[in-house]
Amino acid sequence: MPLRAQYPIFGRRTHGFDARQNYIKAIHAEIAKRIPTRFLRLFYVPVTPLTERLYRWQLPLLEDPDSITHITTNSHSFLLRERRRSPTVITCYHIAERRTNERLGLADRVICSSQYVKRELAACFLT
């Protein structure tokens, strides 16, 4: 079966990624050159600790279990969940608040934007 990637996005914002996040668009464009990709448009509600569960509930309804789910920023780490239908990868650009970093362990893989972020995350998880 061919490799495919899927990207959860918030439905109200844009047709693709948030236009302010050019680095995410660049990563998606590079991946899309190599493998088929699709967007998982999540029903948008303002993100709060209470609505994070709603987002985690939506993903299994939209995910293709034969594709890889790529969460494009660690500020959306609340999308990570223990029981998932497909392998999950998250891109980490910075060291975030402790609650966010704790959820990174639920991903199958973490892509770090720099060696510094990689070392800092390793220190967080090893201590």
Strand-helix topology:
Blueprint: E1 5-10, H1 22-34, E2 37-42, H2 52-62, E3 68-71, E4 88-92, H3 98-103, E5 109-112, H4 115-126
Parallel strand pairs: 1-2, 1-3, 3-4, 4-5
- Domain count: the total is 1
Provide the CATH topology: Rossmann fold
Can you summarize the main beta sheet?
5 strands, parallel
| Number of distinct helices | 4
Rounded mean pLDDT score: 81
Radius of gyration: 14 Å
Question: Residue share in helices?
Answer: 25-40%
Strand residues, percent: 15-25%
Number of strands: 5
Q: Uncertain segments of ≥5 residues (pLDDT<50)?
A: none
What does this structure look like?
This protein is of the alpha/beta class and 127 residues long. The protein has a single domain, classed as Rossmann fold (3-Layer(aba) Sandwich). Helices cover 33% and strands 20% of the residues. It is built from 4 helices and 5 strands; from the N terminus they run βαβαββαβα. The protein has a 5-stranded parallel sheet with strand order 2-1-3-4-5. α1 links the parallel β1 and β2.
Summarize the structure.
This protein has 4 helices and 5 strands; from the N terminus they run βαβαββαβα. It is of the alpha/beta class and about 130 residues long.
Keywords:
single chain, 127 residues, alpha/beta, Rossmann fold
